Amino acid sequence: MPDLFTVNQLAEELGVTPRAIRFYEVKGLVAPRRAGTTRVFDRRDRARLLLVLRGKRLGFSLAEIREFLDLYDADRSQNSQLTMLLARTRQRIAELEQQRRDLEQTLGELRGVEREALAALAGRAATEPGVADAPHAAE
Amino acid sequence: MPDLFTVNQLAEELGVTPRAIRFYEVKGLVAPRRAGTTRVFDRRDRARLLLVLRGKRLGFSLAEIREFLDLYDADRSQNSQLTMLLARTRQRIAELEQQRRDLEQTLGELRGVEREALAALAGRAATEPGVADAPHAAE
DNA sequence: GCATGAACTGACCTATACGTCACCCTGTGC
DNA sequence: GCACAGGGTGACGTATAGGTCAGTTCATGC
């Protein structure tokens, strides 16, 4: 893996458009260096973009993702800053744990739907062998 | 708990605006009955709204949530429908499992940030007792 | 020295998920 | 008889997350 990238390279690798990445820059989520006017991304920029995309998969807005990223490079030199960081981090953790509960519950329900559908299909296969579909097929 | 509700009652209970609930109706996520022109929600409508809100907490769009709700009251009378239901359900499950992996990874990282912040605070409390904040406080 | 391709910057367009507003209808109390 | 609360319907406004398009710059090849 190289250690410098263009927008287009990163866009293709990450499965997004260059436009999206430029948009993230405008929103302060990445800050690639420049060679003249051309954006030059390093591995740290790439890592941040990976975090952005993960945040999106979790359903967060770009603003929320930005706050999340801020936790990583927050100022750790003052106790007051550390205390704020700790509080914000814990709140984020609590939100994610709520999300996990929602996720588990939804997964449980969908597994129920899956089992039910499987059972219904199996039941029909047993009582109506050879019939591929629908009751009216017997008419 | 009553078994019929007005928009306003449900809105207050669920912590959303009546406007939002009416919007969900327009989008086909709920279909309350009517008494004249007035919406009348029953417990099933309420349950659907709870599912909508959970879907939102998971970051899904209303269109996605609608597809999710469709899994619950899909037509189970034909084998072809059951097969489609099974396929869609399994795809949803796979997506949610990806989301869970993202969630676990993010939670792990945030717990790392939390530990780090705690350690830094503890370290300073030991080496600089009585100092509440910042190096320049000594000037 | 000029076309070409890759990058850039606006400016405008789009869909989603509501909020806000104005205005209407209707049953109830006084 | 009428004000008023509670509910309803458009129509328009707003923020987010980009897509699309036009026009510009810049290094290179021929």
From TrEMBL, chains A, B:
Keyword Transcription regulation: yes
The keyword Oxidoreductase is assigned to this record: no
Coiled-coil annotated residue ranges, if any: 79-116
Stretches assigned to the HTH merR-type domain: 4-71
SUPFAM superfamilies (UniProt xref): Putative DNA-binding domain
MF GO annotations: DNA binding; DNA-binding transcription factor activity
InterPro entries with a match to the protein in the record: DNA-bd_dom_put_sf (IPR009061), MerR-type_HTH_dom (IPR000551), MerR_fam (IPR047057), Tscrpt_reg_MerR_DNA-bd (IPR015358)
Entry superkingdom: Bacteria
Family annotation (CDD domains): HTH_GnyR
Keywords assigned: Coiled coil, DNA-binding, Transcription, Transcription regulation
Protein's UniProt name: MerR family DNA-binding transcriptional regulator
Organism this protein belongs to: Roseicella aquatilis
